[in-house]
């Protein structure tokens, strides 16, 4: 299984290394990525050569969902927590390679020092913003629709298979070209 925007980081033979516009004929159009993925899964289950298929997000949008209000308490707790993780890591390394201090003491010093350092950095950063962004959010890229493209040599077969899928209960597909 692959991620929609991720990958293994390795070049795949036959695929371009630089960003290029997709090629192929539209064989289906879907409102959500999940529906487009279901269509490609259907093609794969039907022994279709899915290497000829591409899912293309059209009308891209950056959606920022506001999660909550940002307060001094949250800023300091978050800074302390992230600093604690960094300090714990540093303390463990120091405890493993250090020769003068007991490993437990090195871990404890790293943990406390990391928390203090994290709190100070978070406070300075939040104070410098002067209340211009008093909320937390999560961003993601979404598309207005997802088109499934197929290379011309197999496009008609893909359309036929996806038409059968569209006739099944709960398909939720708009046929290509509509």
From TrEMBL:
Location of region: Disordered: 1-20
Keyword Transmembrane helix among record annotations: yes
The entry's keywords: Membrane, Transmembrane, Transmembrane helix
Transmembrane intervals: 75-98, 104-126
Keyword Transmembrane helix recorded: yes
Domain General stress protein 17M-like: residue ranges: 27-111
Superkingdom of origin: Bacteria
InterPro entries hit by this protein: GSP17M-like_dom
Pfam families with a match to the protein in the record: YflT (PF11181)
Name the UniProt record assigns to this protein: General stress protein 17M-like domain-containing protein
Organism for this UniProt entry: Pseudonocardia dioxanivorans (strain ATCC 55486 / DSM 44775 / JCM 13855 / CB1190)
Lineage of the organism: Bacteria, Bacillati, Actinomycetota, Actinomycetes, Pseudonocardiales
